[in-house]
């Protein structure tokens, strides 16, 4: 099975084209080596995946030609203990020190616009 198709079926990427772009960009490594999207994937292979700023290390446990529900897709791979510990630590770091401005949603309010205008006019 093609590696880009498996990444799509296992729900690491939303589309096959995004999976192919990630592979070509060097964000996916098969058994520690860079690969092309058409590379054949087998059960037991190890994948290092960087998707959305999150790094995964998984072992392929199954192959499926179709994209199935998330519960079934999770049965296609097994995450290594080091990878799950690393992701938990990253999640805790994001919780303790969020990215500045991550709490802002949508357009500024009238009050916030006035504050920004006052701040900018002060310089």
Q: What is the compact description of this entry?
A:
The protein has 123 residues and is an alpha+beta fold.
Features:
elongated, 5-stranded antiparallel β-sheet, 123 residues, 5 helices, 5 strands, single chain, alpha+beta
State the helix count: 5
What would you report as the Rg, rounded to the nearest angstrom? 20 Å
Distance between the first and last residues' Cα: 60 Å
Main sheet: strand order: 2-1-3-4-5
Main β-sheet, in a few words?
5 strands, antiparallel
User: What is the percent of helical residues?
Assistant: 25-40%
Order of H and E elements: HHEEEEHEHH
User: Mean of the pLDDT scores?
Assistant: 91
Characterise this structure:
The protein is α+β, with helices and mostly antiparallel strands and 123 residues long. Helix content is 39%, strand content 17%. The longest helix has 16 residues, at 81-96. The N and C termini lie far apart (60 Å). The mean pLDDT is 91. Residues 72-123 are annotated as: Disordered. Pfam families: S4. This is RNA-binding S4 domain-containing protein. It comes from Aromatoleum toluvorans.
Write the layout of secondary structure elements.
Elements: H1 3-9, H2 16-24, E1 28-30, E2 33-34, E3 46-51, E4 54-60, H3 70-73, E5 77-79, H4 81-96, H5 110-121
Antiparallel strand pairs: 1-2, 1-3, 3-4, 4-5
């Amino acid at each position: 099975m093609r590696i880009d198709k498996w990444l799509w079926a296992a729900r690491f990427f939303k589309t096959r084209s995004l999976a192919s772009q990630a592979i070509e960009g060097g964000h996916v490594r098969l058994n520690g080596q860079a690969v092309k999207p058409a590379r054949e994937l087998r059960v037991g292979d190890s994948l290092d995946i960087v998707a959305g700023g999150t790094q995964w290390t998984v072992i392929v446990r199954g192959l499926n030609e179709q994209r199935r529900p998330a519960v079934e897709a999770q049965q296609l791979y097994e995450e290594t203990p080091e990878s799950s510990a690393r992701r938990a630590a990253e999640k805790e770091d994001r919780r303790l020190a969020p990215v500045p401005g991550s709490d802002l949603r949508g357009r500024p309010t009238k009050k916030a616009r006035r504050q920004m205008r006052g701040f900018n006019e002060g310089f």
